[in-house]
Design brief:
The complex is a heterodimer of chains A (about 290) and B (about 625). By secondary structure, chain A is mainly α. Chain A has two domains: about 60 residues; about 210 residues, MetI-like (MetI-like fold). Helix content of chain A is about 75%, strand content about 5%. Chain A is built from 13 helices and two strands. In chain A, strands 1-2 form a two-stranded antiparallel ribbon. In chain A, about 30% of the residues are buried. Chain B is of the alpha/beta class. In chain B, strands 1, 2, 3, 4, 5, 6, 7, 8, 9, 10, 21 and 22 form a twelve-stranded mixed beta sheet that branches. In chain B, β19 and β20 form a beta hairpin. In chain B, α9 packs across α12, α10 runs antiparallel to α11 and α12 packs parallel to α26. Chain B is globular and about 120 Å long. Chain B starts with a helix and ends with a helix. Classes of the chains: A mainly alpha (about 290), B alpha/beta (about 625).
């Protein structure tokens, strides 16, 4: 505020201005809770993970006390341990299959749900997303009983049971972003493509899918990473026979191998960073808001 | 100024938060005792007619009040009372890491045997019997048999190799590890009952393809490793057992040899066990965290490698017709060649505590070791208490002894139970009556009040009682009332319908009111109920399969072939590595192929699009250039 301007005002107005400034400042401070939350529960854990991922426990033979020293040991352990690499591949496999199946089921569904003629008040979408409201641990327990009833129990078909459980759990996360994208499809462009002689397959692959790319990318993001790191579903539905990345990290921590466990968590972080980067790439070309999911 | 004001506003909040964090101090005017236990592992009040929670009973107990008075008069320290801060935890490992990071401040911690050993070896606990503090009831009533096992455990610290765990730990509950199974499981349809019972006497059954896909084992490193050891070294276990039975080995030698083999965890043994476990993984239905005890009732599985306490829980649930539509009769076996005996103990972590709290912790342990309270805990949790004593004996008699099955009902339908040994006739509530009636097919006796006065108090008095009955022709005649099985205990034992279960080894030196030789021998019809024929047609009494009673109180012979599984110490890393390898699995071939196809497809698709768009771009460029 300029000084000459302030001088022309009465003391009362000055006070008012001050009060205004006070409140204006206040509004900014509304972010403080989130900043505190961010520091305590997002930033600090990551720092702790990084600390443990690049240190190793050293026991002093004289005093028998343990302390942590900088070390590449967790990294070496990760890449030289066949069981960890195996777990990585099993997780990648299950995550890929789950994502694919979710897309195959979810894409046509979202397309029809986005059609105003079929889904008048968007009530149907709510129905498809409703399972998300029930806690997934409870749902998984119920799925286990259901699968046993169908005869596909985890004891005999661990992979099948796990993938079914994963698809059931993550399908809503695929439907929602796809649905949002589909509602924004340029209908006239699709019609035009048909009119100009494209066959249905060409309409689908050259027009609808390219338009829906942002939705597909965010659907993949919402499915792929959580599947890799999930552990309750695989533990319950495969009857403990399939160990995913998340299970393995848990195992490392219960075995008190904090460094190795943290390094695996760090690998997860890297995966997330890579997928985020890829999705950003796609987001640049296409409209961004559909990718908000 | 604004800034300062804000800090002032925040300051009280910080104070409030920090005072909440330090509530372990006795600022509230109460003397605090901080205890952490496993879930559902102590008596809790379920409705108002029952006694209060065990910790509340302790807070109000006479001993505590006396101690507070003593503190007030002699040392001038006035407390409003004693408050027990009672927390629960899920696993030993969680407790250990909290202890290691210095986060936990407890006066008493309930952990398993091996974890107690680890905590004491790592100098994270303090010895119990210091400054003249004792736990008299524990010393009196703890059963010598299990206490003997605890006393034999060492917890060497790096500079003191001779530390004994018993100086740091007080036993709470104990049990065995064995096979819980359902002979009527639909998946066993082709198998004879006798055959199943016979197979289940050995852990080999779990590797037997006959039972493929019907077994669940624990998703826990130690328990499953122990199972692997029992299988891998079965020949050696059999060898020492034969030696012991031949008399070439004394009992102590046998126990030591057993424990040595059972506790093998060097690199070579671990890799041998790993091979067995890999084979096991192919044969089992699954690895369960906590679902096994329920799955066996819902018939998802037929066999579960279980802790005795969980086995009792499953058996009770399987018989409870409010829980299941059709009764499931489960059996529990402690493998013939031996198994694990485990115990949960209280230790005192090394952290800040006042002299009063130290003393109070001892009083709490003393309170828990009082047989009356121990019986209450046992009745509630279903696990077997470390202490013996009259109250426990009475409880076990009430549960399993045939002689306590007599029930009288008078004209007003008040139900009385009659204990033939103590001679007590006690009014019991109707729910007890109906339960007993269901379990044991008791013949109900209706008595008028006058007749009740004549009710005899000993077995000898019982026989001459005459009652009027109608005979076949409708005449009223006086006949001997043969009080069901009660009068026939000796005959029934002779006929093999009842079995004398000798638990004197457990109750030795702890009972006062009862007579050890007469009353610590129980008469039961469901302890070791089976005989089987061997290949030569000779009948054998089965020695390792029983029901609830056997789960809770294995006989001395069974206990002799069980060893404590010690902390792996420095070998922990091998076992851990093995377990991680065991848990992780290779992708099956079909999955690998599928995965490669998908990846190749994705790569092809992406490169097609990339090349396509590049080509389009170049043609567009050309077109522009041409124009």
């Amino acid at each position: 505020m300029k000084s000459n301007e302030a001088a022309t005002k009465t003391p009362k107005a000055d006070k008012k201005a001050k009060a205004k400034r006070f409140f204006a400042l206040q509004r900014k401070y509304l972010c403080i809770p989130y900043i505190i939350f961010f520091i305590l529960f997002i930033f600090a854990p990551i720092v702790i993970i990084l600390f443990y991922a690049f240190t190793y426990e050293v026991v002093d033979p004289a005093t028998h006390t343990a302390h942590f020293e900088f070390s590449w040991q967790p990294l070496v352990n990760f890449f030289t341990d066949p069981s960890k690499i195996n777990v990585l591949f099993v997780s990648l496999f299950i995550a890929t299959i789950t994502t694919l199946i979710c897309l195959i089921i979810g894409f046509p569904l979202a397309y029809f749900l986005a059609d105003k003629k079929i889904n008048k008040n968007a009530v149907l979408v709510t129905l498809f997303v409703a399972p998300m409201w029930i806690n997934f641990v409870l749902r998984t327990g119920a799925t286990r009983d259901l699968l046993t009833w169908f005869g596909i129990n985890g004891g005999t078909h661990p992979y099948l049971a796990t993938i079914i459980g994963m698809v059931q759990n993550y399908l809503p996360f695929v439907i929602l972003p796809l649905y949002t994208t589909m509602t924004k499809l340029d209908k006239s462009q699709i019609e035009a493509a048909g009119d100009l002689g494209a066959n249905p397959a060409q309409v689908m692959f050259k027009n609808i899918i390219p338009q829906a790319i942002p939705g597909i990318v965010s659907a993949c993001l919402m499915t792929f990473m959580p599947t890799m790191s999930s552990y309750v579903i695989s533990d319950v539905l495969s009857e403990g026979k399939i160990t995913l990345f998340g299970n393995y990290i848990e195992l490392e921590f219960t075995n008190k191998a904090w460094n190795d466990g943290s390094f695996m968590a760090f690998v997860m972080l890297l995966f997330i960073a890579v997928t985020m980067f890829i999705s950003q790439k796609f987001g640049k070309d296409d409209e961004k808001e559909a990718g908000q999911w | 100024m604004n800034k300062k004001m804000k800090w002032l506003a925040v300051a009280p909040l910080i104070f409030a938060a920090s005072s909440g964090l330090t509530s372990c101090s006795d600022a509230s005017g109460y003397l605090l005792l901080r205890v952490i236990n496993s879930e559902d592992y102590i008596y809790l009040q379920e409705d108002e007619s029952e006694p209060e929670d065990m910790v509340v009973q302790f807070e109000k107990s006479e001993a505590v009040q006396n101690y507070l008075d003593e503190l007030a008069t002699q040392e001038g320290k006035h407390y409003k009372g004693v408050k027990v801060i009672y927390d629960t935890s899920d696993t030993n490992e969680t407790l250990y890491s909290e202890l290691q990071t210095g986060k936990s401040h407890y006066d008493l911690m309930n952990v398993s045997d091996y974890m107690a050993q680890k905590i004491v070896s790592g100098k994270m606990a303090i010895p119990l019997y210091q400054n003249g503090n004792t736990i008299p009831k524990y010393e009196t009533y703890a059963s010598a048999s299990v206490k003997g096992i605890l006393d034999a455990i060492k917890a060497p610290q790096y500079d003191k190799p001779d530390i004994v765990l018993a100086d740091y730990a007080v036993g709470y509950m104990w049990g065995t590890l064995g096979l819980l199974f359902n002979p009527d499981y639909p998946g066993f349809s082709g198998l004879e009952f006798d055959e199943i019972i016979n197979d289940m006497q050995s852990v080999e059954a779990l590797w037997n393809s006959k039972y493929k896909g019907t077994i669940s084992v624990k998703n826990s490193m130690r328990d499953t490793y122990a199972l692997g050891v029992l299988y891998t070294y079965k020949d050696e276990f059999a060898e020492i057992k034969t030696k012991y039975e031949n008399g070439t080995m004394t009992l102590q030698q046998y126990k030591d040899a057993f424990s040595d083999i059972f506790n093998r965890c060097d690199e070579k043994s671990v890799s041998e066990v790993k091979l067995s476990l890999d084979a096991l993984k192919e044969n089992v239905f699954g690895l369960e965290v906590d679902s096994g005890k329920q799955d066996i009732i819902t018939k998802k599985i037929g066999i579960n490698f279980a802790w005795s306490g969980d086995a009792v829980y499953s058996m009770d649930q399987g018989e409870d017709l409010t829980q299941v539509s059709e009764e499931v009769e489960l059996y529990y076996s402690v493998p013939e060649l031996g198994s694990n005996v485990w115990m949960d103990v209280w230790v005192m972590p090394d952290c800040d505590r006042s002299e009063e709290q130290y003393k109070l912790a001892h009083m709490f342990l003393d309170f828990l070791s009082d047989p009356v309270n121990a019986a209450q805990n046992m009745n509630y949790t279903g696990y077997t208490s470390f202490v013996a004593g009259d109250s426990i004996l009475e409880l076990v008699r009430d549960w399993y002894d045939y002689r306590t099955g007599e029930i009288y009902v008078d004209e007003e339908f008040q139900v009385y139970s009659y204990d033939a040994v103590s001679g007590d006739i006690a009014a019991i509530d109707y729910s007890d009556f109906s339960r007993d009636n269901n379990d044991r097919d008791n013949e109900l006796l209706y008595y008028s009040e006058e007749e009740l006065e004549d009710v005899p108090t000993t077995v000898d008095d019982l026989l001459p009682v005459m009652v009027e009955e109608e005979d076949e022709e409708g005449n009223i005649v006086e006949v001997h009332k043969t009080y069901g099985m009660l009068s026939n205990v000796t005959e029934m034992v002779a006929a093999g319908e009842l079995e004398a279960v000798d638990l004197r080894y457990f109750f030795k030196d702890t009972i006062e009111e009862y007579d050890l030789d007469a009353d610590a021998i129980f008469y039961s019809d469901c302890y070791l109920p089976f005989t089987y024929e061997d290949e030569e047609g000779v009948e054998h009494q089965n020695i390792s399969v029983g029901r609830q009673f056997f789960c809770q109180y294995p006989n001395e012979e069974t206990l002799n072939r069980c060893a404590v599984m010690k902390d792996y110490g420095d070998n922990n890393k091998y076992v851990m590595k093995m377990w991680e390898n065991f848990k992780s699995n290779n992708l099956p071939t079909w999955a690998t192929v599928l995965f490669i196809v998908i990846i190749a497809g994705a790569v092809a698709l992406i490169s097609y699009f990339v090349i396509n768009s590049l080509m389009k771009k170049s043609t567009r460029k050309k077109r522009i250039e041409n124009n």
